[in-house]
Amino acid sequence: MLFIHNETRFNPHPMSHPIRPIHLLPLLVLLTSCGLHHVPLDPANLTPMTSANTPSLTRAADGTRSAQFRPTLTGRTATFPYNSLYWTFARLPVIESDAGDLVLLDTGMDAPAHITLDLARDLKLPSHLGQPFDFARADSLDLQTVTARDLPATIDRHQWVYQLFGLPLHRSRGWTLGLPLLRQTRYLSFDNPRKRVTLGFENFEPANPADWTSYPLTIHNNAPFVELPLAGQTIKLLADSAGGPHLILNPAQWELLKPHVEIRSHTTSSYPTWTGLQPVDVYTLRHLPLGPLHLYDEPVWVRKGESLESLPLLGLGLLEHHTTVYDFSAHLLWIRTVPARP
Questions:
Q1: Cβ of 268: how many Cβ atoms within 10 Å?
Q2: What structural domains does the chain harbor?
Q3: More confident: 330 or 273
Q4: Where does 230-328 have alpha helices with state H?
Q5: Buried b (16+ CB within 10 A) or exposed e, 161-190
Q6: Phi then psi for 122, rounded to 5 degrees?
Q7: What pTM value is reported for the model?
């Protein structure tokens, strides 16, 4: 048994909140799920975690091992382009580390970091498989002028693979940074029209305040929530930067919204989660007011059957034509109501 001590209150069982590391395979949005496979990864050749490669690892008299981590994200304000594949097909803010590895910025994840097993193996990160959970330790992850340090990263032993005629076309592989790290910035600015994100280490000041609207951003159990007026109804949503291309609701929220919108079409689909594919009803709405914004022909995903995730999600896709700012210092979610030119 290995016990983890973490000053950012790292939850070793983050399944209460949706976690989509690089696993939200972007091609799923364009293609059907018939070629999508959740493939186990071989844990052989992982670098075992020892006191030599993990200085904080100690062993008690009864043989119990424990480790303590202090994950930090520090540096100077930096702007990164979105990875075009993941943004185009899944509206996910994926950037690249200095080493060229993919990094998903996921405010909906309540762990500091996450890594796919194959990358942890190739980077030779000290790794532990077993109780209380699988994780690797990284000394640092460099992102231009920003550095994440002393990272305990949960390991995913599975990988989403899209296959065509039995041949793999795309494999999920990379890092995910979650809210315990991301909220150590002063703000995150997702400039969706220009397909870039800024990690800000000074206070956010909108250049033209009249062009913006803001809503209180509350954080509970390392999850950010916002209440938004949708079609005149106030709906509480997880402000999840990795929430994908569309608004995702549970049936209860949909029943609240349904009488106030006009449905243009209805179909069914599914999207990948941590543990498998989540079936959804897809309702395309003729008009969806969001505060001062007016969205047209907007699909809404409503979970059906057994829910693999528990919270309604506001991803970046709903606001793909608007800059969205997570202002952690002022506890606000800003939305630029005047679309910027790409």
A1: 10
A2: 2-200 (no CATH), 209-336 (2.40.70.10)
A3: 330
A4: 251-257
A5: bbeeeeeeebbbbbbbbbbbbbbbbbbbbb
A6: -70, -30
A7: 0.89
